[in-house]
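REQUEST FORM: STRUCTURE PREDICTION
Request ID: SP-0412
Submitted by: Lab K.M.
Chain count: 1
Length (residues): 409
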Amino acid sequence: MLAHIWFGFFAVGFVSALYQWLVNGQAGVFTEIMQSTFDMAALSVEVAIGLIGVLCLWLGFFRIAERAGLINVLARVLAPLFLRLMPEIPRGHAAHGSITMNIAANMLGLDNAATPMGLKAMQDLQRLNPNPDTASNAQILFLVLNTSSVTLLPVTIFMYRAQQGAADPTAVFVPILIATSASTLAGLIAVAWVQRIRLFDKVILAYVFGFAVLMTALATFLLAQPAEQMAVSSSLLGNLVLFSTIMLFLVAGWRRRINVYDAFIDGAKEGFDVAVRLIPFLVAMLVAIGVLRSSGVMDGLIAALDYLLTAIGINTDFIQALPTALMKPLSGSGARAMMLETMNNFGVDSFAATLAAIMQGSTETTFYVLTVYFGSVGIRHVRHAIGCALIADLAGILTSIIVGYWFFH
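STATUS: Completed
RESULT:
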């Protein structure tokens, strides 16, 4: 499927460019497309190089945690849940611990930590994969949970809204929490349906209930803060948890009389190798996304949707926020740029800008996550991963629109 989608990006981009040239008279569209291919190829290398330091850092700490036995402790805590959701992972396997760390980092909005932890989890899962070039059921479920990305502390969105002068930068907190929860739930249900996972198992329901209680408690704590203090508290909580985790790894290794420095270096070397292997996969996907963006496909799609909904009498105020939604599965930086552009054009406290911020926090960048995670272990056949991930994206965007109207319209 990935090969067909990749080819489709180029084909649709070419047709759109022909339309822009022959119908709209924009002969410069081909120059923009070719410039985009060069820019995105360069960006791919920049992204991979930017990941080297972060991967070396976190995979180094992970190696200390593994040798200290902490990953095994985490694996035992969540083994009952993972044995039902991912039955092909043996009890006590290191993948349980690395998956847990990744999901926790995503929840806290710690992107720099979540990616290396996710790549470590994907490598652990790959060791159990009987077909190394084809995604396993466990890898697909893990990837979809990442693309739907429950984010409890969307600190960066608060910061952008504050920088743009929002009256209440954290007003989108609860709507984002609802939208990202809907996205994750939809992704989980989609994967469970394909893989025949029994979600109504009492153990799974117990973990889900505990997770919901934890999220409610944290959300209640944050909502009790004054509006101007919530972003500060969110950032403090996330970074406190992160640094406390690092110290836990180091102290546990020290008590086990592990040479923590050598263990860190061993893990860091692995991080360098992973980052270098990502470059061809990033070039392939980001160049295709660049062609799609610069060919005018997004503008045409939004215009057509606006015309259709207006014709049948549906309120189209949300259309102005759609560029962020359409860009989100393709490019995180592109979606962020669209959100900021909407804030600049309509005002940060406008309905369109507020809805764009909710959309930005509702899901992760599907094709980037898929490229990086599967590319890091050489997977080429992704099976139902893209379909389930896009279902999660759609649920997140639709829920964003609903809660946007509910809270702010």
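NOTES: The two ends are 39 Å apart (CA to CA).
Reviewed by: T.R.
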